[in-house]
Amino acid sequence: MTGIRVERLGPERTELVAERIANAFLALEQPRWLVPDEGKREAVLAGQFEIMVDHAMRHGLVFGTADLVGVAVWFPSIGADPAPPPRDYDARLAAVCGEWTDRFVHLDKLFAANHPHADHHHLAFLAVRPDRQGRGVGTALLRHHHAWLDANRMPGYLEASSEITARLYAQHGYQAREPFRLPDGAPFWPMWRDPR
Asked: Which residues of 63-97 are buried (b: 16+ CB within 10 A; e: fewer)?
């Protein structure tokens, strides 16, 4: 893992970050329910992720490894005034998700219902190119922002989408809560990390 450099990414990387997330998430269980058509799944996911990454460029933090093999998208959730929703969200979501828009709306509501209210930074996405997974890239991205979280006594929160990622996050101090599920039973594990 030594030598993996992490840097903050700017808006010109929005599309690449969204594509990296979509590509990494294809192997997960949840996208199969969100977009049942395998031939359209990656493009729809990338479009939806692009909305969120674009939003993070304005209201969050987007990091990547220097070679852009791995990316992380964080949203600060501080105080009573949360960040506004993504610009023109409903119209943009419908444009990219088409016939599956209702499924993404359901997912948004599920995430909102399970999101903690205490101040924290939310790791919305951590993605590593599939051929580079398991080589410390995700760990480097986590450690990079955890250093800031710990120095500022700020908790972290995320929703793990597999038992493998839940175990990875547990190694970095996250504690899993009871999972919540999509209608087909695919789970998400909400996980909380107190600063160290």
From this structure: bbbeeebbbbbbbebeeeeeeeebeeeeebbeebb
